[in-house]
Amino acid sequence: MSVRSAWAGQWIGVAGESVTLVLPAEERARAVALWPIIDDGAGLVAVLDALLVDGLSRLDAFVLVETDGDRARVLVRGEAVVTAHTPEGQVRVAAPGRLWAEDSFTGLVALVAELPGEVAGDPLERTVLRPGLARVGGLTWGRVPEQPSAPVPTREVPPARTAAPVAPPAPVAPPAPVAPPASRAKTSPPAYEEERLETVPLSAVPLAPDWQEEITDHLPLEEGGLSVLGFGVSHEEPADVPEALATPTHRAVAMLVFNHGATLPVDGPLLIGRGPTARAGSPGARLVTVPSPHQEVSGTHVEIRPGEGIDLGTAVVTDLGSTNGTVVAQPGLSSQELRPGSPVSLLPGAVIDLGDGVTIEVRRP
Question: 286 is in which domain, residue-wise?
């Protein structure tokens, strides 16, 4: 299982070399805090200790997977489901209504993690997931069989018996010997054999999606890359940007297409409104005036800027206390009215409605 891939979504994947942690979107601060531990090569137990340092009751859902060749250990809490594809059939690791479910496998062909909630991308459009942070809608390890050689009924994995990740229970006398399935991990696994699984040639799969930024040592933690996914969006070339506005302060993370004709890159902060003025906290911001014949758009209505920290690589919009509000329609999601002062990450294809007929479409740069 040498290839780990993902498709677009709203969950947060924290991917190390062997350990992968997946958290709900609202846990992004926790994901950023755990990245250095996972990046340093911590194992599953160490990551689990750090994950639950504040208590199990404070985290409703997660998926934690550690892989080593064709072996894997899987923990699931919440409504997510991990399916293990083995030579004998499929095994589901799920814990609906339980504390969590845990299982270990050997001789694996593939793993598939299915995550609840809105999916922003096509599960068939998977891209290799490198170490770092990324928004994901699901993950796979290895090559999922297109069609099993013989139909095998799916087996449910019983939930873990321990209520929390404390010291391991005292050894229990083993039951009468029973030949275990080949896919289950034994208490004392045999010495590793040379991995015989056929791996996917990396040349056959994109090495890095444009929505995932590899975290590098020279960046501070808050600038480590967690990018919003941008599958299935328009690749039209934007209209020419006026020369006076064409000096970027950052690499453009998005293009803004205004319905009145202008097209601008998001390569720094932009203050948009009927008559925008410079504000503290947005040094060097570009002032963008939009028409508002009925005065429904506020003078300085919204700010759009490149995201930072966990939103690095995407555009972020913030309503600046506008009189009539701002509505954002994200692809595949319900429209939402922005809360003043609360930034929202923008997916490619999102449409921002300022009122008075003024809309802004977000496109890939």
Answer: 243-363
**pLDDT of amino acid 345:** 85
Same-domain pairing of 39 and 149: yes
Sign of the C-alpha dihedral, residues 277, 281, 286, 288? negative
Task: Note whether 139 and 20 are within 8 A (CB).
Answer: yes
For residue range 64-75, what is the model confidence (pLDDT) as tens digits? 999 998 899 999
Report yes or no on whether pTM surpasses 0.90: no
Domain presence at residue 341? yes
> Exposed/middle/buried for 203, CB within 10 Å: 0-12, 13-18, 19+?
exposed
2 within 8 A of 108, measured Cβ to Cβ = no
Estimate the crossing angle of helix 44-51 against helix 28-39, to 10 degrees: 150
Residue found by looking up tokens 């404070």 in the block = 58
Residue 238 lies in a domain: no
User: Is the C-alpha dihedral spanning 335, 336, 337, 342 positive or negative?
Assistant: negative
Question: What does the H/E/C string look like for 161-216?
Answer: CCCCCCCCCCCCCCCCCCCCCCCECCCCCCCCCCCCCCCCCHHHCCCCCCCCCCCC
Average pLDDT, the chain: 76
Q: Are 82 and 115 in contact (CB under 8 A)?
A: no
User: How far apart (Å, rounded) are the C-alpha atoms in residues 300 and 27?
Assistant: 31
